Amino acid sequence: MPKNVTGSKGIDEPTLGEVLAVMNEQFSLIDQRFSAADAISRSMNERMNGFDARLGDLQRVQRKLVDQVADIQDDLTSALGSSDKDALTIIDHERRIARLEKASA
Questions:
Q1: Which residues pair with 13 in a beta bridge?
Q2: Model confidence pTM above 0.90
Q3: 5 pairs with which residues across the strands?
């Protein structure tokens, strides 16, 4: 390992080789951290893709349910409409019978 060079102020200064060695070491650490961050990013991306797929499935199921609810509402509306007509017919017949009973009495 090269020796430190004494500077003009009497302070030992590192040589260019030592500076480069430290810089290479630090760049290596940074590269390792970027590699780890890249792996984490890929993992998160895979998870997000899984969430997207599940969300798509849920949206398809929700659309089917909305369609089924709309069909049920249509069926109930038509059934209630016909039962209302039947109820009005029954009430009308009751009134006629009541009038006939009063008239014959």
A1: 5
A2: no
A3: 13
